[in-house]
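Q: How would the structure tokens look for this protein?
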Amino acid sequence: MIEQLDKKDINQIMDIWLQVNKKTHNYIPEKYWEDNVEYVKEEILKAKVYVYKNNNEVCGFIGLVNTYIAGIFVKEKYQSKGIGKKLMKACQSEYTILTLSVYEKNKRAIEFYKKAGFKIAKEETNKETKEKTYEMLWKNTSVSFEEERKNGNSI
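A: Here is the predicted structure in token form.
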């Protein structure tokens, strides 16, 4: 079941965030992720976060800052079971434009985002990790230009 973040779940969220980042981004020193836990925790509490729960266990989450997907994380034992797809669809049903940044080496995530309709908009290098990233963009193509302008989005 998908619901808004309940602050009592923040420790489960952060455990997932840390474990998934360490495993998925094994080309970045673990210390980088460990050093950023408190900062990310503060930012998550400011973001709009959708959480997927199964029997009160947090299985995954997606965090947004405006229309930017700051991250989508699914606990390892629940990966490849459609949870990430459900979280993404929840966001895509609410927004007309979404952007995100993903490491070039994270091929699995890039394929996931492409299947969700995202396209690579530009390439950059992350200043902290020195790793190449892609900025990806998704637009709801069934929304008209006028609806975009009404919602305050630029095309």
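The mean pLDDT is 91.

The longest strand covers residues 57-65.

Upvote if useful.
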